[in-house]
Amino acid sequence: MSVRPAWDFPRGPATCRDLLHVAAEHGVSGATVVAGTGVGVDDLRDPSFLVEAEQELRMIRNLLVELGDRPGLGLEAGRHFSVGSAGVLGFALLSSPTARDATRIAVRYSTLTPAYADLTLEERDDGAVFAYDVSDVPEDVAVFLLERDLAALANVLDLVAGPMLPAVACRIELALDQERRDLVASLFPSSFEVLGAQERTAITLPVGLLELPLPQADPHMAEVCAQQCEALVERRRSRRGIGAQVRSLLLRSPGHMPEMTEVAKELALSGRTLHRRLTDEGTSFRDLRNEVREALA
After folding, report:
1. Can you point out the beta strands (E) in the chain?
2. Of 292 and 171, the one with more pLDDT
3. Phi, psi values for residue 186, rounded to 5°
4. I want to staple 2 with a disulfide (CB 3.0 to 4.6 A). Which of 10, 48, 139, 266 is the partner?
C-alpha cells in the first residue's frame, strides 16, 4: 500500500510566486520555472489558486536545474515570505497572546505554512524544542526547502516578536554544512547560537520564553484567526478527495502516464472501487488523465 507523504496537500500560491521572484533576479523566466507543472504564471497571481505539492516541487527542481543547488538559494526564496504571505495564519501568529500560543498555532496549522518538514514542539523541564523532521521530504529538494523555511521563520520572528529577540538566547541546530550555516546565522540575532553539521534541525527555546507576552497580542483576534485557520484547513482537506489523489499520482509520473489499474493499486483500491468513488465525485479516471495531459502539454 502506498502512503501519501504528510506534505502532499494543496497550498496557496505565495511561495510559488516567491520562486518566480528569485528566478527573475537571476535572469530565469517564469515560464521556465512552471514548465511541466500544469500551472501557468498567471494562475499564481490569483490568491485563491491552490497548487499541488508535486507541482511546487517541480518548480523548485526546474529552478535548481537552471541555477544549481547553490548555498543560500533557498534563503533567497524564504526572504520574500512574510506574515502577509501566510494569510490568516500570519495574523493568528501576530495576535497570539504568548510565544507558546504562537508556536502551538504554527504546529497545529502547519498545513497552512510553506513547510514540507514535519513540525513538532516538545516542552521539557529545561526548555522547549521546535524540531523540523525532513526524513520524508524528497532528498533532492530537502536542503532548498529547509533553507527556505529558516529564512521564512526569521522574517516571521522579526515581525511577531521583534523587540524581544535581542534578549533571547536560543540555540539553532542545523543539519547543514558550515557555509550554509553561516548564511543562516546571518538572518538571526547575535543572541542566537547557530550550530552547523548537526544530526537534526531544531530550535531550542530557553525556560520561560514560551510564557512571554508578544508585543502585538490580541487574544480576541487570535481566537477569530484560529477559527478561520480551522475552516481553511477543512476546506483544503475536503479537496483531498480521491480525484485529487489520482491527479497527484498522475502529476508525479509525467513520463509514464499510468493506467487506472496501476493507480488503483497505488491507492490500495480495486479498479471497480476507484471507478465508483470517482463517479461519486462527478469525474472519471479518463477525464483526470486527459486533464493532466492537457495541463502538462
Report:
1. 118-124, 127-133, 171-173, 193-195, 201-205
2. 171
3. -65, -15
4. 266
For 286, counting Cβ atoms within 10 Å of its Cβ (0-12 exposed, 13-18 middle, 19+ buried), the class is: exposed
DSSP characters for 204-241? Answer: EEPTTGGGSBPTT--HHHHHHHHHHHHHHHHHHHHT-S
pLDDT digits (tens, 9 = 90+) for 263-288: 888 777 788 888 888 887 778 888 88
Bridge partners (DSSP) listed for residue 122: 129
Q: How far apart are CA 82 and CA 104, in angstroms?
A: 19
Contact 91, 221 (CB under 8 A): yes
| HSE of 107, CA atoms in CB hemisphere, 13 A | 16
Measured CA to CA in angstroms, residue 113 lies from 87, 89, 109, 249 at distances of: 9, 8, 7, 23
pTM for the full predicted model:
0.80
Please determine, for residue 2, whether its predicted confidence score (pLDDT) is greater than 50: no
276, three cell numbers:
465508483
Which residues, in sequence order, are CB contacts of 109 under 8 Å at separation 6+? 89, 92, 229, 230, 233
Greater model confidence, 246 or 184:
184
Q: Look at 30-34, 38-42, 161-165 and tell me which has the smallest mean pLDDT.
A: 161-165
Nearest to 147 by CA among 110, 112, 175: 175
Give 53 or 160, the one with higher predicted confidence. 53
DSSP class of 10: -
